[in-house]
Amino acid sequence: MTKAVCPGSFDPITLGHVDIFNRANAMFDEVTVVVTGNPEKPSGLFSVEERVELIRQVVPADIKVDWWAGLLVDYTTKHGVDTLVKGLRSSLDYEYELPMAQMNRRLSGVDTAFLLTDEKYGYISSSLCKQVAQYGGDVTGMFPDVVAAAVQEKYRAKGTYA
Ligand code: PNS
Questions:
Q1: What domains does the chain contain, in order, with CATH numbers?
Q2: Which of 45, 87, 90, 124 is the most exposed place for a label (fewest CB within 10 A)?
Q3: What is the mean pLDDT of the chain?
Q4: Residue 105 appears among annotated catalytic residues
Q5: Alpha-carbon gap, residue 62 to 122, rounded angstroms
């Protein structure tokens, strides 16, 4: 049985992430999305629990969702994961991902497989889309609807939503 993990901060999940998870799900027997971060040390717009909950709402039921606060390779070793799967939008992503992939392989032997981001989502990142939402811009087609609503609600509650 082939097991893959899609790791990331996912603060919050975008439609680009959803596309990568679904494509990974067609390639591996079991796919788990792992939100990395420490629930005891909140950072970012959403708590780790909120990120997990939003992901659960927008991925198919056969994709598992989990979180992890330590080294990713400790998670993959503990759960017998063969492959990490990540999306690559551009050479900038490649430069960022290459040392992490090599470090993870050196530490534990786990391989990283990169899927090229669908061109529809090539310019989409959680941080850029959050910025658009923060100032009242239209994020249709960037976040799943339920996530877009949650982002808008966060900024409304903070009083920064235009
Ligand atoms: O959302 P990102 O920035 O793509 O996620 C990067 C992530 C979460 C994959 C990376 O920061 C990570 O693996 N964090 C867990 C801690 C860890 O294992 N660090 C060493 C990576 S070589």
A1: 3-122 (3.40.50.620)
A2: 90
A3: 95
A4: no
A5: 26
